[in-house]
Amino acid sequence: MFTTLKRDIRAALDRDPAARTALEVLVCYPGLHALYFHRLAHWFWNGNLKTLGRFIAHVGRFLTGIEIHPGASLGLGLFIDHGIGVVIGETCQIGENVTIYQGVTLGGTSLEKKKRHPTIGNGVVIGAGATILGPIKVGDNSRIGSGSVVVKEIPPNSLVVGVPGQVIYRDGKRVPQTIDLEMTDMPDPAEKVIRCVLERLQELEKEVEILKKELPSSPAAYAPPSRYYSPRND
After folding, report:
1. Is pLDDT at 178 greater than 80 in this prediction?
2. DSSP secondary structure string, the chain?
3. What is the pLDDT of residues 45-84, one digit of tens each?
4. 0.90 exceeded by the pTM?
């Protein structure tokens, strides 16, 4: 237990530059408190005391603002930063050394009693306000951009942005194994679309200029045929 607690505190100290001491993390970080409410609730849930497990999870939600279903499976080294509004569903599975920011939803898309929530790989970073839906897998060492909506499988070492989420590889290179919390260098899909439209517009303008040069320049060439033209007598 103390080894796990030490690892949880170290995760906060390593991934939050605002964390100064272990004591501060222990008494002031709701993400850490939510983990221990969940571990207790999960123990009762697996012991077939499901109502008691749900009640403990409900108390944890009330005190921390983080809702974790007692049936969810959380790996070691999980760090929930700030945490308000985080929702983790019943059949969700989270790997080791995962970082989750506030407002994240790991939700289900089915009413059937089966695997219906995401599986998050090791070393994944999920930005604030991101939503991951359905029984999909997010590969190891991937990053989900803030506000993204992910509904498809994500391969390992990927970067995802947009609604719906789009996988963007970083120059074809693997994401470093070290935990990367940088969220400001992500490409903008809308900017890419606008750039494509502008490039196409420039091509069309060049084609129009070529056509103008090929057409006759004399005004008489544009005059209507005489049989359709009758001058007006006033």
Report:
1. no
2. -HHHHHHHHHHHHHH-TT---HHHHHHH-HHHHHHHHHHHHHHHHHTT-HHHHHHHHHHHHHHHS-EE-TT-EE-TT-EESS-TT-EE-TT-EE-SS-EE-TT-EEE---SSSS--S-EE-TT-EE-TT-EEESS-EEPTT-EE-TT-EE-S-B-TT-EEETTTTEEE-BTTBPPPSS-----SS---HHHHHHHHHHHHHHHHHHHHHHHHHHS---GGGGSPPGGG------
3. 999 999 999 999 999 999 999 999 999 999 999 999 998 9
4. no
Of 9, 4, 15, 7, the closest CA to residue 42 belongs to: 4
* CA neighbours closer than 13 Å in the CB half-sphere of residue 218: 3
Strands 159-161 and 166-168: antiparallel
- CA dist 159 → 54, 58, 64, 83, 120 (Å): 34, 33, 29, 22, 14
Length of the chain: 234
CA angle, corner 8, sides to 155 and 28, nearest 5? 120
CB-based contact 127:147 (threshold 8 Å): yes
Question: What is the number of other CB atoms lying within 10 angstroms of the CB of residue 129?
Answer: 16
